[in-house]
């Protein structure tokens, strides 16, 4: 089985842990397709190999999903800190000091040292492992309302999860922004993290569920 690290920022790890977020969209590995996204059609897959058809061509183009396929595993990389006395150690050097604090858990305890990037998370440090149960390619704007919910967009009493966008840890009433539904919330979140492949650009994504 393939095991792939995947970065989750802000409060997203917490939403995965409580079962609110069960899906993610990623563009890694689709750079060639997204050079001209309008001329491609996804026609299916055979395991981790996905096939795209280009407008005006009789051939299908294979693209390997870097996350693997159904049955493979994702391990989450998130912001973290070790006890402050170990701040000088690299993540590899911490293997026998397993006490880790994660940013998504809230206020940093007194014993925790500097907050470190998700980029420097070793596999053994990950507390969240999820097995892939579904994987397909899809244009960003084709996201359904159900999938926006699976992405962790929460709408309750006209309150959106502003923490998902700003990394705040409290709910904020932002209905004045005129958002109509969970898809609008997802669009705002996506554009705040993906300036190259914006909502208006409408890139192809891997749609991964667990």
Detailed description of the structure:
With 210 residues, the chain is an alpha+beta fold. Among the domains are: 78-119, no CATH class; 143-201, no CATH class. Helix content is 13%, strand content 26%. It has four helices and 13 strands. The strands form five sheets. It has a three-stranded mixed β-sheet with strand order 1-6-9, with no helix packed on it. It has a three-stranded antiparallel β-sheet with strand order 2-13-10, with no helix packed on it. Strand 4 (49-54) and strand 5 (60-64) form a beta hairpin. The chain is globular, with a radius of gyration of 19 Å. The model is unreliable at 156-178 (pLDDT under 50).
Secondary-structure topology with pairs:
Layout: E1 3-7, H1 12-17, E2 23-26, E3 40-46, E4 49-54, E5 60-64, E6 73-77, E7 80-81, E8 101-102, E9 129-131, E10 134-139, H2 145-150, E11 155-156, E12 159-160, H3 163-166, H4 182-193, E13 204-209
Parallel strand pairs: 1-6
Antiparallel strand pairs: 2-13, 3-4, 4-5, 6-9, 7-8, 10-13, 11-12
Write a concise synopsis of the structure shown.
The model is unreliable at 156-178 (pLDDT under 50). The chain contains four helices and 13 strands.
Features:
alpha+beta, 26% strand, 210 residues, 13% helix
* Beta-strand percent range: 25-35%
Helix tally?
4
Mean pLDDT over all positions: 88
Provide the succession of SSEs.
EHEEEEEEEEEHEEHHE
